[in-house]
Design goal:
- The chain is α+β, with helices and mostly antiparallel strands and 65 residues long.
- It contains two helices and two strands; from the N terminus they run ββαα.
- It has a two-stranded antiparallel ribbon.
- The N and C termini lie far apart (59 Å).
Length: 65
């Protein structure tokens, strides 16, 4: 039913494979869109967002003083 697809990461421009198993997982979860970032860029973006959130939290805590 599903076949591996080669996609291009929108951040780094590298090709990555969206496997049939990953496509099936997306379908089971009801996700409508294919991934736009490779695993490395997804992880980097996730870490960046996580670190920025921690920084905002620290700033808001110090501003309340």
């Amino acid at each position: 039913m599903y076949q591996d697809k080669v996609l291009v990461c929108k951040d780094c421009g590298q090709e990555f494979v969206w496997t049939a198993g990953e496509q099936e997982f997306y379908a089971e979860k009801g996700f409508q869109n294919a991934p736009v970032r490779c695993k490395a860029c997804r992880a980097a973006r996730k870490n960046s967002r996580r670190n920025n959130g921690a920084m905002r939290q620290r700033r808001s805590n110090t501003m309340e003083l």
